[in-house]
Amino acid sequence: MGGESLTAAVRSGDVKAVTALLDAGGDPDAVDDRGTPALCLAVDGFDLATVEVLMRHARLDRVVDGRTPLLRAVDRGACDIVNALINHGAQLWHKDREGRDALALARSWHETGAVAELRRRSGAAGTVRRETVRDEHGVSVEELTLGGLTVRTGHSAILTALEPRYGIRTSFTELLSRALAVPDVDHEIWWVTTDVLQQRRDRATWDMSAALRDRQDPLERYFGAEVLRLFNLFDYSDEAPFDAPLVDLFLPWAAREPDPRVLRPLTAGLSGALDPRAEPPLHDLARHADSRVRGWAVFGLRYGVDAGRRDALATVLACTRDAAAEVRRGACAALVSAPADCEVSDALAACLTDETEDVRVTAAVQLALRDDPRGDEILAALDANDVEGPYFGQLYDVGRHRRKTDAAAPR
Hints:
Number of strands: 3
Strand content: under 5%
Structural class: mainly alpha
Number of helices: 23
Order of helices and strands: HHHHHHHHEEEHHHHHHHHHHHHHHH
Low-confidence stretches: none
Radius of gyration: 24 Å
Helix content: 55-70%
CATH superfamily of the domain at 1-59: Ankyrin repeat-containing domain
CATH class of the domain at 1-59: Mainly Alpha
Shape: globular
CATH architecture of the domain at 1-59: Alpha Horseshoe
């Protein structure tokens, strides 16, 4: 039912239409006029949102042209799609026509290099067109096009993420080398390599990461700081064993660190540490020249605001007037537990005319949670029932607050 409509919607990237067609009984395994299943079309289009909808219904291990959707995603260098398919149950043991499973295919691309392999497959000798693609979290990857073929430079990240699933423990030095091969610290290889290391939770990894703080190369220092930050961030034990050691390391390191890229994970680490020593430097970091450093500092100061510390509140209020929209939005969000006084409410109200929608909406939400109606017009213009919308969670919080308030009102 609706096979042509479904594949057309997939090709156009219309995830809402894809969802509606599936809900109406559309065949999730529908193929186009070339016999390519809808799921494979979404993989070819690097369309994670559509893949996530289709994979709930489609056959994940269907072989087309000698490849499953997972092998197709590995071939394309689509790390986010590879992770989504595996987490949803795609099998790792399938092999392509050359006898390579997902790990071997990813390693082949990693060792050959994406540009060299793209040239080999396309047979073209022209200029490779490059485009940087960023996801909603700011993680980047390059998209390469040559001779009608397009891949992304996610193969090394895919290899790194797959190795633990195959029982392979890649050395710290090798993982550091893979990250350093890409100077952009926002590239997904940096996230995957540091994430793999933080999952080890061993003293050796902690010590090797800490030792990088004295390296001359700021990229090496960044790598060490990020691994240590993630150690603490993803520790869910009641004892919080990494808080104090992390603050011991990060306080003197942040005080002398000249590179803003390295200061970002250092500030993020201090912001997430449940240690009172971490808060004082956040006030100065909230005035740093780098907006991402300022944003992390504001995030950490929310604990001081929650605890009623006036100095933390003053710094966050000042940041509602920051030059960077992401800092202004973060400052508005950090005021969620601020005292119910006019100074805070007026600062939020001043953000209702901000040039950036995200800031306006966040300010309006915070006002609504304080039972201040000045932002209601902004909220009324949004669809609180759009579960895919960017503000669904915030609008849900407002609705829940108002229902509780109404229920508690005297009858």
